[in-house]
């Protein structure tokens, strides 16, 4: 792995830049293909996520709050050179560039995965650029994961979008228009109750987020722990269970074995793909993924199932949409 920093003014990319805005650059050399939209797409919470953007030039933009403050990161692949390039702005720029290798999956080792199902062998060959991202940040994945508890994805994404637009801050540097950095933990704590309601967030999920931001330093410490220890730390908080903790460490740690349990759809998808059993529950799903447990690859196996395209046809209505913002 190689990398270098170089302060320079940003240029190119097809997005209007602010004149005179200094940026920092780092280029890293992965040891294999990296599909940036596939690797980083798990960080996007819906097509309108104000903290994430893919621009027509293929660049992935990310606005986030680091331990050093807000930062904007623009990531591009340079296949002709075999490199991935990051440009960053804001107080968190250097922190973001230091974490660039983990973010683009260079700390992940897909060669550890040994497929035990023909479908997964085929899918792994079809997506050689799949790597598991590691952000090194907990709260930025924890809050939207809590928003996604027991509601439809559309409801959760709408709430995340509204809260960032109302209480986040503009992304530093020449970010695409409308990009926002999520609020500081103290700002989350000051969100009025009626604004949670307008965002469609019920009292239980709002209370869980407020508990988390009150101890945000303890939450962020979990990023330096092994995934299982991190999950235990998160699950100490009421309102955070195995589903939420798995969703977090998959992103914060790049945890290849943190398979999501308690999901409404995943067991049936995995069961259908690997055993033609669309009625599989968590226990059945874990049995099917057991061959991947020894190498710590159950989450990667489940991710490949989702990427395989082999999903059961719907035979029941989707989860009923419960928009409390209109009550």
TrEMBL record:
Keyword terms of this UniProt record: DNA damage, DNA repair
Taxonomy, superkingdom: Bacteria
Coiled coil ranges: none
Protein's name in the database: DNA-3-methyladenine glycosylase 2 family protein
Residue span of region Disordered: 1-20
Presence of keyword Coiled coil: no
Source organism (scientific name): Streptomyces fragilis
């Amino acid at each position: 792995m190689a990398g270098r920093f170089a302060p320079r003014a940003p240029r190119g990319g097809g997005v209007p830049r602010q004149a005179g805005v200094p940026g920092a650059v780092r280029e890293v050399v992965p040891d294999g293909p990296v599909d940036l939209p596939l690797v980083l797409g798990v960080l996007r919470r819906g097509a309108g996520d104000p903290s994430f953007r893919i621009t027509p030039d293929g660049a992935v933009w990310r606005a986030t709050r680091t331990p050093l403050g807000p930062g904007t990161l623009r990531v591009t692949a340079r296949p002709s050179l075999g490199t991935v390039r990051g440009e960053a702005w804001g107080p968190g720029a250097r922190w973001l560039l230091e974490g660039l290798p983990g973010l683009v999956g260079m700390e992940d080792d897909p060669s550890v995965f040994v497929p035990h199902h023909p479908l997964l062998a085929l899918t792994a060959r079809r997506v050689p650029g799949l790597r598991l991202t590691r952000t090194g940040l907990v709260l930025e994945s924890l809050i939207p994961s809590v928003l996604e508890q027991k509601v439809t994805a559309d409801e959760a994404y709408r709430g995340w979008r509204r809260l960032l637009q109302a209480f986040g801050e503009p992304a530093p540097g020449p970010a695409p228009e409308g990009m926002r950095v999520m609020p500081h933990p103290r700002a989350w704590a000051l969100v009025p109750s009626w604004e949670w309601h307008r965002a469609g967030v019920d009292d239980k999920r709002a209370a869980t987020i407020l508990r988390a931001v009150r101890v945000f330093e303890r939450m962020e410490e979990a990023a330096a722990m092994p995934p299982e220890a991190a999950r235990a730390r998160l699950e100490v908080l009421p309102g955070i269970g195995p589903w939420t903790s798995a969703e977090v460490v998959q992103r914060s740690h790049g945890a290849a074995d943190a398979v999501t349990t308690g999901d409404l759809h995943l067991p049936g998808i995995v069961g259908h793909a690997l055993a033609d059993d669309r009625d599989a529950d968590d226990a059945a799903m874990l049995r099917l993924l057991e061959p991947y447990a020894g190498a710590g690859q159950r989450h990667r196996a489940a991710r490949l199932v989702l990427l395989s395209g082999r999903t059961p046809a719907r035979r029941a209505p989707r989860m009923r949409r419960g928009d409390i913002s209109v009550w």
